[in-house]
């Protein structure tokens, strides 16, 4: 039976929604409320395929469930079209934070590409400022409801354009003013991180953290380029690192696995994998292993000691939440609270916060799960 996006679930008698969570891979333009899209579209004169919020939610889910990242990305044409003014960006960012808080998230990193939001005449700087205003309004609104949450921006460049150095400079300029890291997003296959080496060299010279989409629509070469050319500290998805693992034998629950050099490096260096179970099924990222949640190599990677984290990728397209993603994993792999705590601790340790703040976040997670 499908797990509802807004439904809660109990594990060992504990509400999943109430548990403290960390969200590392969550796209702003993939997390709009359907009703917000309809209202912003009306203001902007943008045509929508459905005028009812529930029907529009169904439309996104149907269009996204194609098994192709290229087709999946086409749904963003609508969301970005209604995010071209400072007022729209601020509203979307505010609601994004409020929805995270309602999902039990205490720290999140929101990724988005400012270069995609300039059609209404905004400058890159004004777009970032509008989103930051919305984030702060959302944090204040959550606090007024008794929920402490902090959200940082991951400024993203589109990997199929040539603005990555400019966007990298933008991200560094907003360090201390909301930006916590950099990413490249968009079509992965055919657009490796090596195309953006000058941007990554600049970011490295500024000691600015980088996460890179890799190992989703492209395989091991993409991951290798993210680590070598991009100096990535985390892998956006990274699920196809499992292609560098060979199952040698199985004996009951015992599985003997041969590691390739790349997989061993990622595991031994504890490079976080920003896994997004539902999205990985929708985009065909796990098609080598199957088409059901039980085929996802998440559990194999977890059991082998990889730094796995759980993420939503795009709440609107996958019609999901972090609570729902955790519930799906519990249902599929029979995880308990100890497992779920590990996933959150992995995410906290991999966050782009100063070490003192990471330690505080880890304490909050530990206390939340203990209580």
UniProtKB/TrEMBL annotation:
What's the EC number here?
3.5.4.4
An example of a GO molecular function for this protein is: hydrolase activity
Classification via Pfam families: A_deaminase (PF00962)
At the top level of its lineage, which domain of life is listed? Answer: Bacteria
Cofactor(s) it depends on: Zn(2+)
Tell me the keywords, alphabetical order.
Hydrolase, Metal-binding, Zinc
Q: Which positions fall inside the Adenosine deaminase domain?
A: 20-366
For this chain, the family text in UniProt reads:
Belongs to the metallo-dependent hydrolases superfamily. Adenosine and AMP deaminases family.
- NCBIfam families found in the cross-reference section: aden_deam, PRK09358.1-2
Q: What is this protein called?
A: adenosine deaminase
Per the UniProt entry, what species is this protein from, by scientific name? Microbacterium candidum
């Amino acid at each position: 039976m499908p797990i509802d996006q807004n439904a809660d679930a109990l594990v060992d008698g504990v509400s999943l929604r109430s548990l403290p969570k960390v969200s590392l891979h969550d796209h702003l333009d993939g997390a709009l409320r359907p009703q917000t899209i309809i209202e912003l579209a009306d203001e902007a004169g943008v045509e929508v395929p459905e005028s009812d919020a529930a029907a529009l939610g169904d439309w996104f889910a149907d269009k996204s469930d194609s098994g192709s990242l290229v087709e999946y990305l086409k749904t963003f044409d609508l969301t970005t079209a209604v995010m071209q003014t400072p007022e729209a960006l601020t509203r979307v960012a505010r609601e994004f934070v409020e929805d995270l808080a309602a999902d039990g998230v205490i720290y999140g990193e929101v990724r988005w590409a400012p270069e995609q939001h300039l059609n209404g005449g905004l400058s890159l700087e004004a777009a970032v400022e509008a989103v930051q205003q919305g984030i702060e309004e959302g944090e204040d609104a959550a606090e007024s409801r008794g929920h402490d949450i902090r959200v940082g921006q991951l400024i993203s460049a589109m990997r199929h354009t040539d603005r990555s150095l400019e966007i990298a400079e933008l991200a560094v300029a907003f360090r201390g003013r909301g930006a916590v890291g950099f990413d490249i997003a968009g079509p992965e296959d055919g657009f490796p991180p090596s195309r953006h080496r000058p941007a990554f060299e600049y970011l490295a010279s500024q000691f600015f953290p980088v996460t890179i989409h890799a190992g989703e629509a492209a395989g091991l070469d993409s991951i290798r380029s993210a680590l070598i050319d991009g100096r990535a500290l985390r892998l956006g998805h990274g699920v196809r690192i499992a292609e560098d693992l060979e199952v040698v034998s199985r004996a009951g629950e015992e599985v003997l696995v041969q590691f390739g050099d790349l997989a061993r490096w990622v595991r031994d260096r504890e490079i976080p994998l920003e896994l997004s179970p539902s999205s990985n099924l929708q985009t065909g990222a796990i098609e080598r292993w199957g088409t059901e949640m039980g085929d996802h190599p998440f559990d194999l990677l977890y059991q082998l000691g990889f730094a796995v984290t759980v993420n939503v990728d795009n709440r609107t397209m996958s019609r999901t939440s972090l609570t729902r993603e955790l519930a799906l994993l519990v249902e599929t792999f029979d995880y308990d609270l100890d497992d779920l705590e590990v996933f959150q601790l992995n995410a906290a340790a991999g966050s782009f916060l100063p070490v003192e703040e990471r330690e505080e976040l880890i304490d909050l997670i530990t206390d939340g799960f203990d209580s």
